[in-house]
Amino acid sequence: MDQKFDRYGRAVCQYIRHGTGREKRAIQAELSAHMEDHAQALMDAGYPKTYARQLAVEAMGDPEEIGRELDRAYPRIWLVFPRAATVVAVVLALLLAFILPSSLTAMHEMVQTNRQARSDPASRGDLGTSAPLTIPMDRRFTLPGGTVLVFYGTSLAREETGYTAYVYTVRYHQNPLSLSCGSETPLTFSSGEQTLPEGQVWQDGWRSTCYQCYAIGNLSPGTSLTARYDHFGTAFSLDIPLNWEEVTP
């Protein structure tokens, strides 16, 4: 049994008051099997074995919370039904009820999306916007809390009110099983000293990965564009390349 999995199982069982030693060992075995499945899914997705096992433990959550919930939900059921069958049933019920967001299918999708964001974000497509990505980029910034912000492309489109610039970004958490990609803080855009009005933002993503496309409209030909981020002491700016020579008459 993996030592990390064993320590986690023993930590959970510390809070179960009504189980025998044998029953607690059965609970540890059930939890360990669940984490083994998670770790294998991560390794199948390309993560190193040691890192995959660490993430599988983190995905289970706080062992004290899990142990107390198990003890609280089933305080005396051990004394009513056949004990061996009850142990398995209770642990499975707990896994389904409280660890469902980290089930194999959900976790595999999270990991695959997160991995795609790191290696080839442009393959995500145009997020439903009206202009395809025309200038690829690869500028990465580390944000507070373990999130990485990537600018991976821009495009321009001519419209009735002027030109609209589209800036494609993706935020992914360095932990692919994180419940947040830090998408709550939007970027701002400016041209020279002038801050431009906030335009429409298309967003798509799930938990540890979030794709965003910013539309900045009513631009005049040749306008420069700068993206700015300023949150919790982290600030930076980035000049955004635009293909004016290809879209202006």
Features:
249 residues, alpha+beta, 5-stranded antiparallel beta sheet, 4-stranded antiparallel beta sheet, 7 helices, elongated
Helices and strands in order:
Elements: H1 3-13, H2 21-44, H3 49-60, H4 63-73, H5 83-98, H6 104-119, E1 135-142, E2 147-159, E3 162-173, E4 188-191, E5 194-195, E6 201-206, E7 209-219, E8 226-231, E9 234-239, H7 244-247
Antiparallel strand pairs: 1-2, 2-3, 3-7, 4-5, 4-8, 6-7, 8-9
Helix pairs in contact: 1-2, 1-4, 2-3, 2-5, 2-6
Structural write-up:
The structure is a single chain. This protein is 38% helix and 27% strand. With 249 residues, the chain is α+β, with helices and mostly antiparallel strands. Strands 1-2-3-7-6 form a five-stranded antiparallel β-sheet. Strands 5-4-8-9 form a four-stranded antiparallel β-sheet, with no helix packed on it. Strand 2 and strand 3 (162-173) form a beta hairpin. It is elongated. The termini are far apart.
Indicate the overall shape.
elongated
Protein structure class: alpha+beta
What gap, in angstroms, lies between the N and C termini? Answer: 68 Å
Biggest sheet architecture? 5 strands, antiparallel
Short description:
The protein has helices spanning 3-13, 21-44, 49-60, 63-73, 83-98, 104-119, 244-247; strands at 135-142, 147-159, 162-173, 188-191, 194-195, 201-206, 209-219, 226-231, 234-239. With 249 residues, the protein is of the alpha+beta class.
